[in-house]
Every structure is written in C-alpha cells, then in structure tokens.
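One-letter codes give the sequence; the fold follows as tokens. Both lines appear below.
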Amino acid sequence: MHGKVSIIGAGTAGLVAGRDLASAGISTTIYDQKEELGIPVRASGIISINGLKMSGIAYESAVTNTLRGARIHAGSSIMKISAREPVAKVLDRKRLSDICEYEADHAGAKIVKGRRITGHMIENLHRNSIMIGADGAVSNVAKHFGMGPVERYVLTYKAEFNVDIEDPDSVDLFFDKKAFPGLFAWTCPNAKDLLEVGVGVDSGKANSKKAIERFIAMKEVKEMVGDAKMIDNGASMIPLRMRKRIVDPEKRVLLVGDAAGQVKGTTGGGIVYGSAAAIMAAKAIRDNLSKGKSLSEYERMFVRRYGSDLRLHGYINRFYSSLESRTIGRIIGVMNFLGMDSFVSKYGDMDLPSLLIKRFFLRGLI
C-alpha cells in the first residue's frame, strides 16, 4: 500500500500503531529520543486482562503477577472487592516495551532510537508523511501543530521494596483529599516478594515526592514495608483530560495515547485506551490511503467507542477528589451495608465503568 507514516514516540501506543501500519504494508518509521526503549520505568504495570486482549499484544511473558481484588481505604473504612477470576495482570513494563518493539520490528516498521525530537525534525518528516504523535503527556507533536492543551495533569511517584507479601493478589487504594489531592495512593504486589508503593497528586496542589514520603510513613504502609530498603523509584506526569483535538485531517496529524490525553481519570492508566486508539488510528490511515476516507474517522471511531467511558472516568475522579476522606469512608460504609461490595466484585470493569452502571439499572438496584 502506497503511503508513508512517521510516528514520534516509541511507547506502547506508538509501537502498536507502527505494528498495525507496517503489517498492512505501509512504510512506517518510529522515532524515539531514548537509546533503549522502556527505560527508565516510570509507570505502574497494572492492566486489566480485558484491556490487554484489546491491544493484541502478546503480553504473557511480561506478566509478574495476577490480581483478583482490591481494598479501598478512606478514613477508617475499608471496602473489599474480590473476583473469582483474575481481573488484571501486573506487567514488567520494560519487558512489555521489548515485546511491543519486537512486534513492530517483526511487522516491518523501522525504529530509530536516540533521535532528538525537535520542531525542525517534525516539520521535515511531516512534509512527506502522515504523522502520529505518540510522544507522551507533554507532546512536541501536539504543540507543534497547535492541537490544544491538556487541561489537567497528575504527578505520580512510585517506589519498590523487596518484602514478603501476605496477600499477593490484591491491591490497596488509599483516598485522602488532603494527602493525595486529585488521585490516590496505592500499594501493589508486583510479584510475591516485590511491593510497589505509589501516589498520584494533582499538579499544582501537591509535591509527589513529599506525598510518597508521607504515605510510606503511614501506619498501614509501614507495616507492609517494615525495614526494607527502597530499591527503585521514579516520578512521572500523566494527563487526566483528553485534548480537544486528537486529529487534524488537513495537516495529516493524529495523536494517540498520553499525547492525546487518552487516560483513565479514575486511575491514570493509559495503556488500554492508548492501545485501542493506536489500532483505530492505524485503521483510519489505511482507509485514507486505500479508500480516500478522511483521517477524522479516527476521532469519530474513538469517541463513539470510548468517549462516554472516558468522560465517566473523569466525572468519577472529580467526584471523589472533591470529598473528604471521612465522607468517602461513610459512602463505603453504606455500600458495604447494602452489599455493593459484592456487586462491584462481580460486575465491575476497570476500563468501562458504563458497564457497571448499565448492570445496575438492568437489575433494578437504583
């Protein structure tokens, strides 16, 4: 198929898009500033099983743990959510990057590493190719082509500790408006003897490094960590709003993943929506080159399939972010009393909250 595509950014979304485009016979080159992809690891690796299936990535060799449940903490209240079947996998993000790189390369995409991404470079590449911006939250591609700002970010900080974990198939989520404004804190068993401790805070409202220091000092976390030494740590910036424009059909520019702001507002997770967007962007480009369809089909496909759920993630985030931890604790107490913990355990979906709401109505529970 005639046509050329330049992808800026070799994260998961960029590599998935490159894989699908190259598989269709489209000349595809992926550029990244890093000499080695996937390093340093800044993001958590908790990803729903359904979401992983959507990506088409052969992720199995990157799995380090399987999750079936969560404990939600707010004030003195705890809600336990557990499922009979596994609902999520914890992945080694470096290994996942290696798998995505292999799949894109094996499909025929050219991957150029260690290339400094400048406006001049973007302009030169864009003259002769369709361009995909997959270059993260602070996207040079989005900025260069005036695709509009991301209106809200959270700052995360995570660390890992070698400890023996009593319950290796459940995560703990801690909600506290004062300590973790805008998101929450968490502990996650990345493996049976490797505990991840992390926080997410609204940019401009808190310092993520100070927030994680306070979190580690909390009684519940101190009991988990004990005297173990921190073996790894890192900070990142995550967009919590989608850009108003994720495609410019006239300029032949598309944004995917964090560059587009395609991230769950409830958790900050971006792999599921970013991978889905990458697959849709690749399809829109194929249809543009082979059938003359507008590249704007990409945005229409994504918004039609995931727009309502992304908005719902945002509404949920704004709701719990506005409440004091004691108020969330009372809500959890009421939900426990009504048996909602069992309902959420059975019907909840990490990626598609609209499904839970629909099941609520179908069963006459509200």
